[in-house]
Fold this sequence. Notes:
Elements: H1 2-16, H2 30-77, H3 82-85, H4 100-120, H5 123-148
Amino acid sequence: MKKILVLITLAAVFVACNTTPKVPxxxxxTLAIRQKAVLEEQVRxxxxxxxxxxxxxxxxxxxxxxxxxxxxxxxxxxxxxASSETPAPAAPxxxxxxxxxxxxxxxxxxxxxxxxxxxxxxxxxxxxGAVAGGGAGYLIGRAKDRKTGRVVKxxxxxxxxxx
Length: 163
């Protein structure tokens, strides 16, 4: 029985000491990976250039069609008036979203309510803080609106100018 155990132990040692790896080694070709990345970048850049050229061509075609339509309208009328040569200036588009005055009122009111509640320890302090903060925020926001041109300062035309 001892001889069998010794043989099994020796066989296990020989099997465990095998130096050949069972997993195949993968060789990575970094040069091929770099070349592939360069080619992909070149394709991406060329696609961007093509997209820009298509947009420019489309814009040019639209301009030509608009000019052709304008020429057809002028020849059909038989004359050319001054208003057809220079288009009237477009009215400025209304700005969408909150004005700075509205944002300032909302933010100032919220901050004032929190500060008034903390300072006064009651609801009355929060209400007073909200009103004061909202008013201050409105004034600051209105000044920003004037700077950006969203709001134009009104001129009083009822008074006679000072001489």
